[in-house]
Design goal:
By secondary structure, the chain is α/β, with parallel strands linked by helices. Helix content is 32%, strand content 25%. The strands form seven sheets. It has a four-stranded mixed beta sheet, covered by helices on one side. The longest helix is centred in the middle third of the chain and has 14 residues. Bound molecules: uridine-diphosphate-N-acetylglucosamine. Uridine-diphosphate-N-acetylglucosamine binds next to helix 1, helix 5 and helix 6. It is found in: Cytoplasm.
Length: 418
């Protein structure tokens, strides 16, 4: 299993390019199931989760042609299999995103239930309830969701909880349903908006994406598109936190500052100077130690849960005490015991972590438990005394493209060992 060896102490300095957003590329790739003619998708990050999604779609009959710049052509005229098997869904929960498109276009889907995962139970009841309201006949048996429908029809769906992939699944399904679907309490994440824009470019009629009410008027068919995925706001935020923690100066390019206002506000509060342009952000910490910040995670536009572990790592070495409350997932504190092994002073009270910043962390062998927890550990290693070994980094490879290359480019001492 691959590991990262990171020697802490270097301030990060320089420029890097941000990749396309994993969480937008995944639903956009799934949406190619809906189109009758080929789609061309660009700015897709080269990540394990993307490979998993492409193998899943490939099994269903989508043919992919990928050029040297990783532009992807997806031909979806010959789909013959409507199954997402357990072996694939268990490695990536986002596989559930094929459910809506399959039942909407082909009237059938057989998709494994994702089951639990490291950060909580993460049920998919809202995906199922929404499709049922649209007329799908759904059975859950033997760990699989079987969905059937002659043609889905429009419905007004009120989602009890804000769910990102749930909103995306239902928006895709509604695009081919008969009549108007209204999604209430919809997720407002930029990745939902990106998917909506992609669907619109395929011929879908969608209004209100980016607000909590999305109205979709179904059409008879969708055709292929040429679409470029938006930049990854979580990758952007992760490198900016790395610069803040190490007292460095980093410019991130090919990104969009408007996607991460909540994160930038916290980094300003921590003492960073931030300059933003059209497609870049520069953060300068001038060698200073960050100040502790209080965080409360919530759906967009509030502070993202996917940046929580990184800010925990920052608070661990910040001046003062930071309170960090996680409200989206019930078990997203797996990185805390690892950070404690590196000398962090963190106390957990329910879903709040109280972090008393220490001057220095010490290197220790630590283990990645999920994607963003791993990012938190890598950031902590960048400021720890000695060489930290981060084990099980396949979690990181699911979501950060060439992380060791990008960090090396910024002056970190990091290498991968097999
Ligand atoms: C997506 C992101 C993930 C991010 C999360 C929250 C992708 C591929 N993944 O995950 O990186 O951390 O949003 O921003 O985009 N819930 C239910 N019933 C449901 C669906 C969800 O109770 O049917 C609950 C979940 O358990 C969780 C909350 O709703 O507590 C939010 O989950 P959700 O937004 O669905 O997360 P994902 O879409 O899986």
């Amino acid at each position: 299993m691959d590991k990262l060896l990171i020697k802490g102490g270097n301030p990060l300095n320089g420029e890097i390019c941000i990749s396309g957003a994993k969480n937008a590329a995944l639903p956009i790739l799934a949406s190619t199931l809906l189109a009758e003619t080929p789609s061309y998708i660009s700015n897709v990050p080269n990540l394990q989760d993307i490979t998993t999604m492409m193998s899943l779609l490939g099994r269903m009959g989508i043919e992919f042609v990928i050029d040297e710049k990783l532009n992807i052509e997806a031909k979806s005229h010959n789909i013959h299999t409507f199954t997402a098997p357990y072996e694939m869904v268990k490695t990536m929960r986002a596989s559930i995103l094929v459910l809506g498109p399959l039942v909407a276009r082909f009237g059938q889907a057989y998709v494994s239930l994702p089951g639990g995962c490291a950060i909580g139970a993460r049920p998919v009841n809202l995906h199922i309830e929404g499709l049922t309201a649209m007329g799908a006949d759904i059975n859950v048996e033997g760990g699989y969701i079987t969905a059937q429908a002659k043609r889905l029809h429009g419905a007004t769906i009120m989602m009890d909880i804000v769910t990102v992939t749930g909103t995306e699944n239902l928006m895709m399904a509604a695009s081919l349903a008969d009549g108007v679907t209204t999604l209430e309490n919809a997720a407002r994440e930029p990745e939902v908006v990106d998917l909506a824009n992609c669907l619109k470019s395929m011929g879908a009629h969608i209004e209100g994406a980016g607000t909590s009410t999305i109205r979709i008027e179904g059409v008879e068919k969708l055709s292929g598109t040429d679409y470029s995925v938006l930049p990854d706001r979580i990758e952007t935020g992760t490198y900016l936190v790395a610069a803040t923690m190490t007292g460095g100066k980093v410019k991130v390019k090919n990104t969009d500052a408007n996607l991460l206002d909540a994160v930038l506000l916290k980094l300003l509060e921590a003492g960073a100077t931030i300059t933003r342009g059209n497609d870049w952000i520069e953060l300068d910490m001038q060698g200073r130690r960050p100040r502790a910040v209080n965080i409360h995670t919530s759906p967009y536009p509030a502070f993202p849960t996917d940046m929580q572990a990184q800010l925990t790592a920052m608070n661990a070495i910040a001046e003062g005490v930071g309170m960090l409350t996680e409200t989206v997932f019930e078990n997203r504190f797996m990185h805390i015991s690892e950070l404690q092994r590196m000398g962090a002073e963190i106390r957990l009270e329910g879903n709040t972590a109280i972090i008393n910043g220490v001057e220095r962390l010490q290197a220790a062998p630590v283990m990645a438990t999920d994607l963003r927890a791993s990012a938190g550990l890598v950031l902590a290693s960048l400021v720890a005394e000695g060489e930290t070994l981060v084990d099980r980094i396949y979690h990181i490879d699911r979501g950060y493209e060439r992380i060791e290359e990008k960090l090396t480019q910024l002056g970190a001492e990091i290498r991968r060992s097999h």
